[in-house]
């Protein structure tokens, strides 16, 4: 295992597209500037929010290369999600991430032909980590998408023996008991990153010190206030800010979360383009209504913009 603590907010970034759906690498620089303006310390690229399963291998490599070019010499860290159903592709992405200087890699499990046991999952991760032996590795546990519900404490136990670069887990899993078991596993040797934005306050109460999420792209100040208020034992403020997060997520989900989230970025001046099918996108009327609601929620002020 390897020590690689990640604290604070990590934005799971969107993959930017042109209006025709082609990759728009020119927007990455503005995305990175926006994250730094809103106090984000690291970007988690090419994950669920990044529509990784809708990208070709070449597109994913190009995206990683561009992020590393843009962040070179800056304080913004980059974690590259390399997960896919083909382990050969995963290994190629992991090797490239190491070559171009990423700070860490992460991968969800193959989810069409699924690992049926923790041992099988670790076998998969052995192939991934062997391709990038110098990079910290975070398993991406997201049962709601992969359909894989395995014991993460057992994974850490086996992984500590077989995965020299294992650093922790991106825990997008509602099981609070399992989260705590992972958090305190091996005398808290691993970074267990909370992955549910709309319940961040619960993660903090359970002991989380780092979190990865999609809404941190466009609403980071809300979550920074939650963290600050929680640290000051001001739970009234923390709960009020978390309520704003819940209302925002519910509003976006009501019209299709991915497309709506990308519309929010456009409204804030960081146009990451449309979502790719099978995601849907907002029409002009829906986007106008969303902008009005964001204004009413107080989410279009200068602190939310580049």
UniProtKB/TrEMBL annotation:
Pyruvate binds at residues 49, 212. It is found in: Cytoplasm. Its main location: cytoplasm. Transmembrane segments: none annotated. Coiled coil: none annotated. One of its GO terms (molecular function) is lyase activity. The active site is at residues 140, 170. One of its GO terms (cellular component) is cytoplasm. This is N-acetylneuraminate lyase. Keywords: Carbohydrate metabolism, Cytoplasm, Lyase. Belongs to the DapA family. InterPro entries: Aldolase_TIM, DapA-like. The keyword Lyase applies. Gene3D superfamilies: Aldolase class I. It comes from Prosthecobacter fusiformis.
